[in-house]
Design brief:
The protein is of the alpha+beta class. The chain has helices at 18-23, 54-63, 67-76; strands spanning 6-8, 11-13, 30-35, 38-43. β3 (30-35) and β4 (38-43) form a beta hairpin.
């Protein structure tokens, strides 16, 4: 396919047709490399929900605790309960 370069600020770019993007499974991010004088663009594959719980795990590691310890602390303190 023959296409033309377009001015984008101080850079230049090309428009990639939606059909090409769909066939290559390219969404938001790409990995772009220069190989033997050619520009190679590949889709970035990421795992679903990657990093969702990273902050919680790091907080628990800092406190040297686990979710079970936190839960049992609340359950063990029944001094205010009326039986």
């Amino acid at each position: 396919m023959l296409t033309t370069m377009r001015q984008i600020g101080n850079s230049r770019g090309v428009l990639i047709p939606a059909a090409f993007l769909a066939l290559c499974q390219i969404e938001d991010q790409v990995d772009m490399q220069l190989q033997d004088g050619k520009i190679v663009i590949q889709p970035v594959k990421r795992e679903l929900r990657a990093g969702w719980f990273a902050s919680e795990k790091s907080e628990m590691a800092k406190e040297n605790s686990s979710a079970w310890d936190v839960a049992t602390t609340f359950l063990a303190d029944d001094s205010e309960w009326v039986w």
